[in-house]
Amino acid sequence: MKFEELKDIVRKAGIAGCGGAGFPAYAKLDKRADTIVLNCAECEPLFKVHRQVLEKYAYEICYALDVITKAVEAEQFIVAVKGEYKATVEAVNAVLPQFKNGKLSLLPEVYPAGDEVITIYETTGRVVPAGNIPISVGVTVFNVETVYNIYKAITDGEPVTHKFVTVAGEVKNPQTFYVPIGTTFEDLIKLCGGVTREDVRIINGGPMTGFFGTKYDVVKKNTNGILILPESNPVVARKDININVGVTRAKSSCCQCHMCTDLCPRNLLGQPIKPNEFMKAVLTGKQNDIPVLVDAMYCVSCGICEMYACMQGLHPRSLIAEFKMNMRAEGVKLTPHTKPGKVHSQREFRKVPMNRLKERLGLTIYDVEAPLVDDVVKPKKVKIMLSQHIGAPAKLAVKKGQHISVGEVVGECINDALCVGVNSSVKGKVVDANDKFVLVDVD
Ligand code: SF4
Ligand code: SF4
Fold first, then answer.
1. Mean pLDDT (whole number) for 244-271
2. Does any ligand 2 atom lie closer than 6 A to the CB of residue 249?
3. Do the Cβ atoms of 181 and 163 come closer than 8 Å?
4. Probe ligand 2: pick from 279, 292, 300, max atoms within 8 Å of CB?
5. Which of the listed residues 19, 153, 346, 373 has the most CB atoms within 10 Å of its CB?
């Protein structure tokens, strides 16, 4: 398949990254890449979706990786998967010999192996300079389900309408479902048999990078899972932060022990981010320490500093995130470095083991299988958001009262912007439509 043809198919199918920020996949197809990496690190504790999808569709995913590799004229594709995911590794090994430019790379069971800059280092040994994207070192990284969606688009012309989602924590039967996009979290929880206790919070995403959600939130193209945790769980306590209180606590309790910086995965890869220095600027009131503040912009919110490293229970990640948001609002942009930093000599010994992380966050008891359920779920109603990706939202393309079918365009792609279209995930009647979402009663 030709490069432009693939790019066009991927864009028309509305494919955006099925995790993280939901970057439009067509915009990642780049002929400067010599290596395509499939990211199956799945390092958010308790989530199983990536490894399950790769195990089930190993051939289809490797087939699509092969098509991408050839279309962008790269030399190879690498399937990066944790050695711990034995069934997935077995499934990949069974099909990989059919693809002569594909190979397997086993990742360690640490957090955050799935930060793409870390995945690239672990699989290729290349270090992405701070503030740059993977293509700066000749690599493009794709999420497992994104590549599965590319497979469906290139073989059947199928647009993105459904999403694999793990539901874990305090529910009767933790499972992974294949649901129409726009399904509410309330419906997902019901599918698991309901919650097992009343005093729970819903986390949209994983324990490390997710954020509080409600039962009215809906599945989007980048929803990998939701987590139901009791109010008393350490994850809830650490996420439940008031920024002003966080600043006061930093001023009174940060002892400058340096642990947050010692364990910061980006710092260990030679990037200039130093959370302890940022906290020092907060606690001393030296918010004009420009180099420290500029370096804080390289934080990727992995959460290691505040969810694991800081023994005082402080919130370097959240304070940095607030600072970054304010800087962006002022138009301050990240300056890309031209050269990679020096990888820390102690990096190998400072990786955070997953079991230790789960234990510290009180998650070990929830680490159960969450099997992938084959049946496609049919909710009564779906709310399909027009912005499910980074870039410009899709433009409303349906009217209230209109009958629509599965796959029909409900949000048009804006061609001269970073954007992908949005397709209906169900057959039904549009009961509300505006520039934010389309609400559909399912037939
Ligand atoms: S780990 Fe906590 S106490 Fe230590 S320097 Fe970082 S924020 Fe301060
Ligand atoms: S969240 Fe903390 S540990 Fe992670 S990159 Fe930012 S400063 Fe480093």
1. 95
2. no
3. yes
4. 300
5. 19
Ligand 1 pocket test, pick from 252, 256, 282 with the greatest ligand atom count within 8 Å of Cβ, gives 256
Place of tokens 């009262």: 401
Q: Are residues 207 and 166 in the same domain?
A: yes
6, β-bridge pairs: none
Bridge partners, 36 (sequence order): 77, 140
What are the tens digits of pLDDT across the range 355-383? Answer: 999 999 999 999 998 999 977 788 999 99
Question: For residue 208, which phi and psi values (nearest 5 degrees)?
Answer: -85, -45
Q: pLDDT tens for residues 398-424?
A: 999 999 999 999 999 998 999 999 999
One domain, residues 121 and 51: yes
Structural domains counted in the chain: 4
| Spatial separation of the C-alpha atoms in residues 246 and 252, rounded to whole Å | 10
Question: Do 124 and 150 share a domain, yes or no?
Answer: yes
User: Which DSSP string corresponds to 189-211?
Assistant: HHHTT-BS-SSEEEEES-TTT-E
| Residue 353 · residue 378 · CB < 8 Å | no
Q: How confident is the model at residue 335 (pLDDT cuts 50, 70, 90)?
A: confident
CATH of the domain at 372: 3.10.20.600
Q: Residue 283 has what pLDDT?
A: 86
Are residues 229 and 83 part of one domain? no
Kindly report the CATH number assigned to the domain that includes residue 114.
3.40.50.11540
228, 370: one domain: yes
CA 24 – CA 9 distance, rounded (Å): 12
Please, which residues have CB within 8 angstroms of residue 192's CB and are 6 or more apart in sequence? 167, 171, 172, 173, 174, 175
Give the end of a domain, one of 121, 156, 191: 156
Range of the domain at 212: 161-233+362-378
Alpha-helical runs (H) found in 116-229: 116-124, 144-156, 185-191
